What does this fold into?
Amino acid sequence: MPHYILGIESSCDDTAAAVIADDVILSNVTANQDIHSSFGGVVPELASRAHQQNIIPVIHTALQKANIGKNQLSAVAYTRGPGLLGSLLVGSSFSKAFAMGLNIPLIEINHLQAHIMAHFIRNAEKTGSVPTFPFLCLTVSGGHTQIVIVKDHFDMHIIGQTLDDAAGETFDKAAKIMGLPYPGGPVVDRIAREGNPDRFSFSKPNIPGLDFSFSGLKTSFLYFLRDRLKEDPLFIENNKADLCASMQKTIVDILISKLDKAATETGIHEIAIAGGVSANSGLRSGLYGLGHQKSWNIFIPPLAYTTDNAAMIAVTGYFKFLKRDFGSQADTPYARISF
Ligand code: KG4
Ligand code: ZN
It folds into this structure.
C-alpha cells in the first residue's frame, strides 16, 4: 500500500493542496488570489482572509481529484515557513487540526527546501528523470534567490544568495514601473516574446563570489525610464516589448552567469532550477543552451511545479515520512528562516 500524503501550502497568496501516493502525484490544486493585482503586490491581511475562504474547498477538491478519502491519508504535510505569518497561520492551524482529528502524523515543511524537492515529484508513468546527488539548484522566487548544493534530500547548503532584492521581486518591480499588473514576472515574460532583448542595456552588478544583487538594476531601470519619459511621455507604451525583453535578458544573464560560476567552482554538472522564476521562458531556454554547450545534466521543473504549489510540499512530506521526521502540535510558523 502506498503512503498517501496530503500537502498544504499557504505561505503567500496561493492556497494549495495536493495528494501524493509515495512520490507519485495524484492531484495538485491551487486557488490564486486575484484580489492583490489591483494593489500592485500582496496585501498580507487580504491574503490570510482569502486563505481562510479557500482552504477547505481546495483541500476537498484535491482529495476528490485524487479519489482518496481522508481516512486513507498517512500524514498531513504543511508549509511552516518562510512566508507571511498571517497566511502561514491559516495553513498550519488547519493542518494541525486535520492531523489531530484523523490521528495521523503532522509534518512541517520548509518552503524553500520544498521548491527544490519539486524535482522528485513523479508522474503516474514515472517518465522523466530526477537529479542525482550532489546537484546544484538555483532557487529563484519572489522572496529568494539562492544557489544551493543539494547533497541529499535534506542536506542542502546555500553557497550564494541575493544581498538585496530577489529575482522575482526584480521582475515584479520592473513590471510595476512600467504600469503592468502584479505579479509582473509572467506578464514581462509574455510581452518579452515580441521584443528585442538587445535593444536596451541596463547595468549589471559586480558582486564577488556567488552572491547576487538586483537593487542597482532596479534603480537603473527606474532612472532610465524617468529620463526617457521626460522626452517622450509615450516611451513605455511605444517600447514595451523591447523594454520587457531587454530587462528579462539582463536578469537571466545575471542568474545564468553565477550558476555557471558555481558549476565551475564546485565541479558539479547536475544543474537544476526551482521557484516561480524558473517558469521564465528566457531562463529556461538560456539554461538549456548553456547546459547543452557545457554537457551539464539540466533539470527544469514542469510549469505546474515552478510557482507555489502543494505538490512540492506533499513530496517533501513523503521523504520526511520515510524518515519518521514528524512535527508537533507546538510548532509555530516562522516568517524568515533559511535551512
Ligand atoms: O515561488 P513563487 O511562486 O513564490 C515565492 O515563493 O515567492 O514565486 C513567485 C515569483 C513572482 O515574483 C513572480 O513574478 C515570479 O515568481 N514569476 C515569474 C514567472 N512566473 C512567476 N518571473 C518571471 N517569469 C515568469 N514566467
Ligand atoms: Zn515559493
Notes: The radius of gyration is 20 Å. The longest strand covers residues 24-32. The longest helix spans residues 235-266. The beta strands are 4-9, 14-21, 24-32, 75-81, 106-110, 135-140, 145-152, 155-161, 270-274, 297-299.
